[in-house]
Amino acid sequence: MDNASKTRRLLFRLGTVLILIGICAVMMIVGRGHTVYFDNKQLEYNGTTCECPYKIKVLVKDEQVANLKAKERGMATTIGQNFAMTLKITQEKGGDEVVETYQLKLPYNMDGIVVNLPAYLEGLPEEAWMSEFVPIATESTAEDEEVPGGDEFEMEDLGDF
Question: Cβ(74)–Cβ(68) under 8 Å?
């Protein structure tokens, strides 16, 4: 093999690797999945109290994903950093329903994102209405754990001999 073909082969290989790295970088940003949780819970932030509306219906891509009354939570999954939701808000029982569409920029570094809708609707800063979902680990008790095979020293009543 001559020197020109070796150089050409090396350039094609390097070009292929760079293209693959570029595709991976784009897919990592665009294809990132998120679970977004919606809270309709009262929140107090710096002396400001955000009261819950009576009912909030959350629609994502024209599909209803949550119907939240006070102190309830719903969720939706999405791919990408941009999140669009339509909220149908009823402030009080029997009141009129107001429909609004909102766009959120989701942080790349969070998998589960909790959005407090009353605080978001009040226009509070992002750190007030957005937080990371952290599941609570529950401790299992001895009663919850099932022992396979039961008691190994279990004695049967053999009766009289």
Answer: yes
Cβ pair 126, 116 in contact under 8 A: no
What is the C-alpha separation between 80 and 105, in angstroms, rounded? 9
Closest by Cα among 86, 112, 110 to 97: 86
Structure tokens, 22: 């570029």
Here the tokens at position 136 are 């609570």
Is pTM, for the whole model, over 0.85? no
How far CA 111 is from CA of 66, 85, 104, 146, in Å, comes to 19, 18, 15, 33
Give the chain's largest Cα–Cα span: 99
The model's pLDDT over 91-146, given as tens digits with 9 standing for 90+, comes to: 888 888 889 999 988 887 777 889 998 888 888 888 888 888 877 766 665 555 56
CA distance 144 to 108: 38
